[in-house]
Amino acid sequence: MDVTLIVLSAGNSTRFGYEVKKQWIRIGNKPLWQFVADKINEFFDFKKTIITANPKEVRLYEKSSDYTIIPGDKERQLSLKNALEYVNTEYVMVTDVARACVPKEVVLNLLNNPADCTVPFLKPVDTIVYENKTIDREKVKLIQTPQLSRTEILKKALNTDKLFTDERAAIEALGGEIKYIPGSKLSKKITYFEDLDLPCLTPPKKVFLTGNGYDTHAFEKNKKMILGGVEIDSDYGLKAHSDGDVVIHSLIDALLGAAGFGDIGEFFPDTDEKYKNASSVKLLEEIISTLNSTGYEIINADISIIAEKPKLKKYKTKIQRNLSNILKAPVNVKATTNEKMGFIGRGEGIAVISNANLTYKDWHEHYNSRK
Q1: What one-character-per-residue DSSP string does 96-160 give?
Q2: Which residues contact 251 (CB under 8 A, 6 or more apart)?
Q3: CA 320, CA 229: separation in Å to the nearest integer?
């Protein structure tokens, strides 16, 4: 069989109730979205694997994966329609990132029982009441993913403005053949933080991720000088598209380097008028928010400012405290000269070298503390 795997991972994780988005909690050293895709790919040789991501995070997914990453949408069905544009196999298997521990036998059973749509399900064991009336639980199915569908039929079924909660419902509405197979309790859907009690979800690895950043800016007359978010008493500032805070620019690159997320120019290009004269503190806060939501915790940062002028002795502590408050982590700030050498020594500008350390946010420890 030629089969494409689609992992839907574009949700905002609003019900999860944790500062890290569900798809970004670390299982070992992998974010959940990659863990799920890798795990299912161990069971079968899929022709292609497609992962939908929040449009703002597509680049971040691509940094650590060879899978085809495409922008998702706010609705599951719209994300799936986007992904189906890249599918040319006869069958497509669709799963949700929230189904993290789907066992091998379920995947193989789906592949061995093709239909217009093949669906795993569980039988309810509790009494079921609907609109204050008890109904026959033998007639009830608890539907799970992944589901296997004929690609062309699924594309046709989703060519509508009506929203369906899964592929089965769409194909059923079209009159397609639905085949049901036994599901698994291990395929439990992670909706809330309390749902992380699944045996395949190992704690994040205890790692120290180090990144470095370097930035330099020339002086510009009649401009305010800001370093580390602190205004410096000077009659010249730093030439830049934004406010020219060379300290924060260097720090941002160090943080992004530790996370493997590229560099500041990928997030805030100097060709974008939106960032003209932008506050670098606001840019740093945006990067910190991105790191927090994608599963990183800042350990510390160390910054060296290299400048012949202005003299920064009385500002170092202010810069250090300000950045520490923003990062909510220890920050050390050093200042030195370039011994009159080069463009710095000639008093033409400032250079900054930063180092930052991150680790994975330990959701497992937090989970145990809430028991």
Answers
A1: ETT-TT--HHHHHHHHTS-SSEEEEEE---S-EEETTEEE-GGG--EE-S-EEEEHHHHHHHT-S
A2: 213, 228, 284, 301, 303, 323, 352, 354, 356
A3: 10
Q: Show the beta-strand stretches assigned E in 194-276.
A: 209-221, 225-227, 230-232, 236-238
User: Residue 28's beta-bridge partner residues?
Assistant: 204
Angle at 309 between CA 305 and CA 315, to 5 degrees: 60
Sheet of 331-336: strands edge to edge?
236-238, 209-221, 349-360, 296-306, 331-336
Contact 6/80 with Cβ under 8 angstroms? yes
Q: What does DSSP assign to residue 181?
A: E
Q: Report how far residue 301's alpha carbon sits from residue 296's, in angstroms, rounded to the nearest whole number.
A: 14
Tens-place pLDDT, residues 29-67: 999 999 999 999 999 999 999 999 999 999 999 998 999
The rounded distance, in Å, linking the Cα atoms of 70 and 51 is: 6
CB atoms within 10 A of CB 45: 9
CB 174 within 8 A of CB 103: no
Structure tokens, 208: 């120290």
Query: Shortest CA distance to 64 belongs to which of 98, 100, 26, 92?
Result: 26
Token pair 């929040």: residue: 54
- 147 closest CA partner among 174, 120, 172: 120
Of 142, 186, 137, residue with least CA distance to 168: 142
Render pLDDT for 287-311 as a digit per residue (tens, 0 to 9).
999 999 999 999 999 999 999 999 9
Q: Which fold has domain 209-364?
A: 60s Ribosomal Protein L30; Chain: A; (3.30.1330)
* pTM attached to this predicted model: 0.92
Residue pair 8/72 in contact (Cβ under 8 Å)? The answer is yes
* Tens digits of residue pLDDT in 116-173: 999 999 999 999 999 999 999 999 999 999 999 999 999 999 999 999 999 999 999 9
User: Parallel, antiparallel, or unpaired for β 128-130 and 133-135?
Assistant: antiparallel
CATH class, 3-195 region: alpha beta
Instruction: Report the distance separating Cα 5 and Cα 335, nearest Å.
Output: 53
Ranges for all domains in the chain classified under CATH 3.90.550.10: 3-195
* Integer CA distances (angstroms), 9 to 34, 37, 67, 257, in order: 10, 10, 13, 24
